[in-house]
Amino acid sequence: MVGLKEELLKSIWHAFTALDLDRSGKVLSHNLCTVLNVPHDPVALEEHFRDDDEGPVSNQGYMPYLNKFILEKVQGNFDKVEFNRMCWTLCAKKNLSKSPLLISDEDAFKVWVIFNFLSEDKYPLIIVPEEIEYLLKKITEAMGAGWQQEQFDHYKIALNTSREGLSAWELIDLIGSGQFSKGMDRQTVSMAINEVFNELILDVLKQGYMLKKGHKRKNWMERWFVLKPNIISYYVSEDLKDKKGDIILDGNCCVEALPDKDGKKCLFLIKCLDKTFEISASDKKKKQEWIQAIQSTVNLLRAGSPPPHKEARQKRKELRQKLLAEQEELERQMKELQAANENKQKELETVRKQLEAAAARAAEEEKKRLQTQVELQDRFSLELEREKMVRQQMEEQVAQKSSELEQYLQRVRELEEMYKQLQEALEDEKQARQDEETVRKLQARLLEEETAKRAELEKWHLQQQQTIQMTEAEKQELENQRMMKEQALQVAMEQLKQLELERKEALEQYEEVKKKLETAANNTKSWKDKVAHHEGLIRLIEPGSKNPHLITNWGPAAFTEAELEQRQRSWKGKKATSE
Q1: What is the torsional sign of CA 418, 420, 421, 422?
Q2: Is the same domain home to 65 and 154?
Q3: Residues 173 and 222 in one domain
Q4: By its UniProt entry, which SUPFAM superfamilies does this protein fall under (predicted)?
């Protein structure tokens, strides 16, 4: 009933939109009740179309009344063609094109009904390009012409760029224009439209003339047979005015081929529960076609499936819905990707701004660093100038001190004593150097022993690696040797540690001797400084005397031979005076 209600609503929608509801709503409702065999409810009709602002029409619209009082009461016992013709009569005059068409009004009516069957279940009603192609193919095949796919593809591209599909009146204009039926006369096009109308709307699966054997008089009479999903009706002629009977089909029926008999050929039998019908086709091809068509219809009844054209329409709709869902999902994913891309762009913009800020801070810091460097260079230059001045002053002081050193040449005794102490210090220094040499030799010997031990350890390690790579049969013996070598390796490691300790002790001794040597050197230097301070050894370089110098145990004497004789005479004089 839901599918029937949807089919009825499409035709009613055309009539409803073409009328002025306030003036013609009652007429539409009355006509619908009449053609749909629904009992009239005058009270509800008058209440719904009450002429004031509080009436149900103004508040609720026409659909609640249509659903409650008309469509819910439809039982299916009505003439669909008559119902569609009533709706067509109400809407055709207002919407049908005034330009001349290659099809009659009756053909336009049939195209309008086919449109309602193939259109989408959404309002305003349109027929999508896929269904347009399906309908045009059916009409072209019925005319016996070839389908022009390339021509329709161009038309489809032009249509898709402007809208989703065509309205009923645009479809009538398209078929009536002859764009896809060029070379065909009006009668051929009309017959093709009628054939498609019979198949899609009247559910006529097959029709044609055949001979039928009577049940009472057993004579053969020519009848016009019409096969529908659950019935075969036969008429006197193809105008369908004089109906002679029906063959009710169900899942228990079957059809069988019969051999020729009684001068009749191409016989077949239709078996039902209560009756059996013998029929003769015009030729073998027609016989086979009717047998297959009737058997297919019975099979569909057994399976509970709808007629082929309705099932195909449902599959096409499901496919379009699936493609639409996939397209919507793809669009949703694209929107998500676009949103993610925009978020990434925002993040990149934020990072770019952060990088620009960081670069600005780095430039400011670099500027400060360069300024600090310039300031440090200026300060260093000032300190360098100050150091030069201080150095010049110190050189002047040194020159002054050098002149003062000449006053201490008379202190010879102190100088000799100091020379003795200096000699002792030199001896200490010499002994310290010998001790240092001894420690160095000891350290060298320890290093050589350590090197030898390391070489031996490396050799044992290589032997151990070679032993590991030996065959499994020698593994036990090699394991024992490895244990012995590991013990020897452990002993060698202990010896190496001992040598390391001895080396550390030698280094400590070397450091002590080095410190002693440095102390002796410092003492020597101290004594030399003292001697130079007291005896004036640091003095200005002057031309020496050409007389030969005296040589003492400590080196060249600090006085000449004439000065020594003068001092001897002075000592002798002092000695004589004291006696």
Answers
A1: positive
A2: yes
A3: no
A4: PH domain-like
CA–CA separation, 561 and 569 (whole Å) = 12
CA distance 176 to 181: 9
Q: Is 334 domain-assigned?
A: yes
| Cα separation, 127 vs 132, whole angstroms | 7
In-domain check, residue 65: yes
pLDDT at 448: 87
- Residue 70: DSSP 8-state: T
pTM: 0.55
Q: What is the CA radius of gyration of the chain?
A: 65
User: Which among 176, 171, 92 has a CA at the least distance from the CA of 131?
Assistant: 171
Residue type at position 298: V
Is 345 exposed, middle or buried (CB count within 10 Å of its CB: 0-12, 13-18, 19+)? exposed
Alpha carbons within 13 A on the beta-carbon side of 335: 6
Do residues 57 and 124 share a domain?
yes
Verify that 22 and 110 share a domain, yes or no: yes
Residue 476 is assigned to a structural domain of this protein: no
Task: Tell me, yes or no, whether 89 and 54 share the same domain.
Answer: yes
Residue 454 tokens, joined: 């390391």
Helix H, strand E, coil C: the string for 180-238 is: CCCCCCHHHHHHHHHHHHHHHCCCCCEEEEEEEECCCCCCEEEEEEEEECCEEEEECCC
Q: What total number of domains does the chain contain?
A: 3
pLDDT digits (tens, 9 = 90+) for 127-186: 988 888 899 998 898 888 888 888 888 888 888 776 788 988 988 988 888 888 877 888
Quick one: how far is CA 502 from the chain centroid? 69
Eight-class DSSP state of 254: E
Band (434; pLDDT cuts 50, 70, 90): confident
Is residue 455 included in any domain, yes or no? no
Q: Are residues 218 and 321 in the same domain?
A: no
Asked if 118 and 266 sit in the same domain, the reply is no
Q: Is the pLDDT of residue 244 over 70?
A: yes
Same domain flag for 315 and 290: no
